[in-house]
Write a structure and sequence with these properties.
Blueprint lengths: L15 H5 L8 E2 L2 E2 L1 E2 L10 H13 L10 H21 L7 E4 L2 H16 L5 E5 L8 H10 L2 E5 L9 H7 L4 E7 L11 H9 L5 E4 L11 H4 L3 E5 L10 E5 L1 H6 L10 E5 L2 E4 L13 H16 L2 H20 L4 E4 L8 E6 L4 H9 L3 E2 L1 E3 L4 H6 L5 E5 L6 H18 L1
Parallel strand pairs: 3-15, 5-6, 5-7, 7-8, 8-9
Antiparallel strand pairs: 1-2, 4-10, 9-10, 11-12, 13-14, 14-17, 16-17
């Protein structure tokens, strides 16, 4: 069966040492060793501009937004709304009105499921997802299907971790009411060719919801070029704070969607007889948001843009190729997910050794990797494993750190194998 593939990215020059100087956390030692941080798919470290933005809000401009007429409130509101413009530019959206602030990708996907999904999916309909989805792009659709009497359909993957094109086309049926797909797999690193996928779905009048949590830190994203209907990501996976994220939605859908949560800021007026909702995007932003986090998110996105996404992607590609070569050369190590088009995520298992033991022993050497099912249990089942060890890269990682990882894994194998 054929599989989907993405174009190869170029590799411009990249000054990793200059980047590392921006991240204070990388300068520390762990268990007497220099920190080798390879858990970036879970969360990235934070550069100085982000830390300064957080501190600046709490030190100078700590006030609520949109409702204050004093100077602190006006400054906070201006900084908050500036982030909306930055996010619009970062995603290539047509309007700032298409940018909704959320608590993260999970919250964004749930928002779409509970608003757009509820108004679109009915009894007997289908929601289509893929076998490589994070739980955040599975469970909300399961809940919706259970509520509506609909069916959850799944596109399978091949052994390399790529979507199978024929199966995708077969499952885009007249009963399919929406397709939810990850841009990049958090457990495999596979890059899905969204333009092809969206075009195939739209040819059948099927909207596409994208989980972009693992993509935005590794490649330029243009929602206009992709033509997706929704795109969600989390700030903390692209050098920003935890507890904040962005949901992009096409204006035509956001205007028609009902609000998800009720409360302050999502209303125009309230009486006991009824409520008039605020305009888009504010009708989806109930309550006091993570103001400091949103303001600092602008610093994170601007920092990522200053890195030169193409150069950073090329740097990471080189590290990923080196890591795959080094790990595959260790007897008993099996890489899970070997798609030719992927970001710097390497999931692996060592024969006879539990991933938790691998992670524990690597931590003793100052090397931070993930161990577990990575919120992708159906994907683990597809490969016949309960869990994997996962090393995931960011722009600040180095070749020396990859060599340290390989040496550490070899030592674990020698100790426990």
């Amino acid at each position: 069966m054929a599989s989907l593939s993405s174009p190869t990215r170029s590799r411009p020059a990249f000054d990793v040492e200059a980047v590392r100087r921006d991240f204070p956390a990388l300068q520390q030692q762990v268990n007497g060793h220099p920190l080798v941080y390879l858990d970036n798919a879970a969360t990235t470290q934070k550069p100085l501009p982000v830390l300064e933005a957080l501190r600046g809000y709490y030190e100078r401009d700590c006030a609520n937004i949109h409702r204050s007429i004093h100077q602190l409130g006006e400054r906070a509101t201006e900084a908050f709304e500036h982030t909306r413009l930055v996010a619009q530019r970062f995603l290539g959206a047509g309007s700032a009105r298409e940018i909704v602030f959320t608590a993260g990708a999970t919250a964004g996907l749930n928002l779409v499921a509970q608003t757009f999904g509820r108004m679109r999916v009915g009894s007997g309909d289908e929601v289509l997802i893929t076998a490589m989805e994070h739980h955040s792009n599975i469970v909300p659709w399961q809940m919706l299907c259970q509520e509506k009497g609909a069916r959850l359909a799944v596109v399978p993957i091949n052994d390399a971790g790529e979507l199978i094109w024929e199966a995708l086309e077969e499952r885009l049926t007249p009963r399919t009411r929406l397709l939810a797909v990850t841009h990049v797999s958090n457990a495999l690193g596979t890059i899905n060719p969204l333009r092809q996928i969206v075009a195939a779905a739209h040819a059948r009048q099927i909207p596409v919801v994208v989980d972009g949590a693992q993509a935005v830190a590794h490649m330029p994203v243009s929602v206009a070029e992709l033509d997706c209907d929704f795109y969600a990501f989390s700030g903390h996976k692209i050098y920003g704070p935890t507890g904040v994220g962005v949901l992009y939605g096409k204006s035509e859908w956001l205007e028609r969607m009902p609000p998800w949560q009720g409360g302050g800021d999502m209303i125009r007026s309230v009486s006991f007889e009824g409520t008039t909702y605020n305009r888009v995007p504010y009708k989806f932003e109930a309550g006091t948001p993570h103001i400091a986090g949103v303001i600092a998110l602008a610093a994170a996105l601007e920092y990522a843009l200053r890195l030169d996404p193409a150069a950073a992607a090329g740097h990471e590609d080189g590290l990923r190729a080196l890591a795959a070569e080094r790990l595959a050369a260790i007897p008993g190590v099996r890489l899970i997910g070997t798609a030719p088009q992927k970001v710097g995520v390497l999931s692996f298992v060592i024969e006879g050794i539990h991933p938790h033991d691998v992670s524990t022993l690597l931590d003793q050497q100052g090397i931070a990797v993930r161990a577990g099912h990575h919120c992708a249990q159906p994907l683990m089942e597809r490969y016949g494993v309960a869990a994997t060890s996962r090393a995931s890269l960011a722009a600040y990682n180095t070749r020396q750190e990859i060599e340290a990882l390989a040496a550490g894994v070899a030592q674990v194998k020698e100790m426990l194998g």
